[in-house]
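Continuing the batch. This is chain 6 of the set; chains 1 through 5 are on the previous pages. Same settings as before, nothing changed between runs. Recording input and output for traceability.
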Amino acid sequence: MHRSDRATRQGEANFGEVVDTKPHAGPTPVVEAEGLTKHYGSRIAVDRISLRVEAGACVGLLGPNGAGKTTTIRMLSCLTAPTAGSLRVLGMEMVAANHRAIKAQLGIVQQEDSLDPDLSVENNLLIYASYFGIPRREAAKRAQELMRFAQLTERRRDRIRDLSGGMRRRLMLARALINGPKLLLLDEPTTGLDPQARRLVWERIRRLKQHAVTILLTTHYMEEAANLCDRVVIIDHGKIVAEDAPETLVDSVIGEEVIEVYLPDSSASRGVLEKCRDFACRTEQVGEILYLYLRNGSARQRAFEALAGYRFTRRKPSLEDVFLSLTGHALRD
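Output for chain 6:
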């Protein structure tokens, strides 16, 4: 075995000592919410949702801006008290008396950068470890493994202000793992990153999945959810509108193929719909684009014949099609 291979395997073994690879004890879900509700005055941010996250699963919470995703994460992380409903995290009721015990077993990556700009990469990890009462020697060992995990070992002495955005997000992820959490909450972990940095964070999250870390993440990137999540929960206006494995949702909501028809004007859709009425497909119009969702490939040739004279493209469906179909195409602020 080459020396580099031995080093890689040793690093993997050491990283397994940092993260909690032992499943959450018993059949109880890591997260179990029933009728979870949060009001801010007259505004309902989360509206009677029920949610289960099993040990070792990676679950994505998807929704437009203002749908209730971050409010749900805040309730799970003991930062916001529910207005109604029941919530258990790691087998414990979400009540003030349990907050300390729950927080001790959580890892949280917020949307906003909360690193200390006056400290080095390494000291950000060491100071954070002290909040959990981790002895200095053990904290130093964990920090070394997590800097290797985040590919930041060579930047260990750099201050935060000297890091790129991607490096900061990787350090946020490493810091969230310093206490060996049983549940990792990732709130839009790759927002604002370039494609290279985003995919490196994905690779780090996949490694966590290999070590059976339970993950709940929010994201606006449908490709991210499709690549990382075992199950996705789509929430809109505070309510859950769909929940299943990404590929199952694509098949059940959209079908096998999407045809985008480019209309000369929005009123032209009537003629296209007349030709396609007897197809086993669903349609949706957005401006001057008509979407035809074909349930099976047998309708493809008939669709091509019906669309003669129109400009159109055909493609495979995606989780983004599901998201837009269920939550709408209108811009949310």
